[in-house]
Design a protein that fits this description.
This protein is α/β, with parallel strands linked by helices. The protein has three helices and four strands, in the order ββαβαβα. Helix 1 crosses helix 2 and helix 2 runs parallel beside helix 3. The longest helix is centred in the middle third of the chain and has 21 residues.
């Protein structure tokens, strides 16, 4: 029997969570409420980072710190890691979102795939 897929979705604005149902939405950057959701297999947690309005370095730091804290705690507890999804569509506003590539530093032993509409930065 396979374990249900758990998703951790970082969204740079609230539009992504408006078009889904039966998901948990976290409005703060504290890892505790995120962990409350992703500790349960099969759940989806949207985190509204509001990083679209931030300078690039700050947006990267917000995403990296949150993901590092969540993955670190789950690893320490011996729990499965969630699938990470970036719902960042900052590229529509003319800026490039570097959010997914820094996630590689959060869990370097993990396989990473980019399925966004633009190419990730090296």
């Amino acid at each position: 029997m396979t374990t249900p897929r758990t998703l951790l979705v970082l969204d740079d604005d609230p539009t992504g969570s408006q078009c889904v149902h039966d998901v948990d939405v976290v409005l703060e950057l504290d890892p505790a409420p995120v962990l409350d959701v992703v500790r349960n297999p099969g759940r989806t947690c949207f985190v509204l980072t509001n990083s679209r309005a931030r300078p690039e370095a700050e947006a990267v730091a917000i995403n990296t710190e949150l993901v590092s804290a969540v993955l670190g705690r789950l690893k320490a507890e011996g729990l499965p890691l969630p699938h990470l999804v970036s719902r960042s569509d900052s590229t529509c506003g003319g800026t490039s979102s570097p959010s997914p590539p820094p996630w590689r530093t959060c869990s370097p032993d993990r396989e990473w795939r980019w399925t966004g509409s633009s190419s990730p930065r090296p």
